[in-house]
Amino acid sequence: MAENAEWENAIEYTKFLKGARENTEIMKAWYNDLQITEQDLENLRSLQNELRILVIGNDRCSDTAGNLPIIAKMADISSKLQLRILDSDAHARYHQQFKVNGKRKTPVVLFLSPEGEELCRWVERPNAAYKVINEATNPSVESRNKELKKLYSDTEIQRQSVNEFMSLILRADFILGRS
Predict the structure, then answer these.
(1) Between 141-152 and 155-176, two packed helices, what is the crossing angle to 10 degrees?
(2) In 10 A of CB 77, how many CB atoms?
(3) CA-to-CA distance for 152 and 129, rounded, in angstroms?
(4) Does residue 125 have a pLDDT over 80?
(5) Partner of 143 at 20 to 30 A CA spacing, among 39, 65, 79, 162?
């Protein structure tokens, strides 16, 4: 499967952070500050199947920087989750197949079986962040990135991302079969 080849080319989170040139400190801070609830811990401990999470993104992307630490923390908590990151620029040809409305979006988060089959997918940002960004009056890239960094510092937005990722992790676990 194509996902297996891409999985082999992807890197682990710590290696991604070491090679990152942008947003490194903010990703470390968001990872350390993330609030994980008892329910989150219970859900992560309840996983019965191994899952791979492949994130297609890059360190320049504010959405990747805002969400990757959340996924990394979840993967660090659960031994059932393996996380790898694939650079969206270096692997643009592969990334092309995940366009939304004709545009490449980052990050693309693929929830995969151990064999590399796609079970679920999440793209770009949590629903609450879309609402804020879509209502912004200044559409410049710099202004949008500044707004996104502010958003991803908000515990409500972080909580929405956690909930969306948890829902997909649990769905993937159920797809693979729970006993």
Answers:
(1) 80
(2) 15
(3) 8
(4) yes
(5) 162
Q: Which residues pair with 11 in a beta bridge?
A: 85
Reported as a single tens digit per residue, the pLDDT across 37-95 is 999 999 999 999 999 999 999 999 999 999 999 999 999 999 999 999 999 999 999 99
- The C-alpha atoms of residue 19 and residue 2 are separated, in whole angstroms, by 25
The two tokens of residue 51 are: 């899952």
The tokens for 145 are: 């990135």
Regarding the domain with residue range 2-176, which homologous superfamily does it belong to in the CATH classification?
Glutaredoxin (3.40.30.10)
Run of H or E including 81: strand 81-87
d(CA 65, CA 57): 9
Domain residue spans of the chain: 2-176
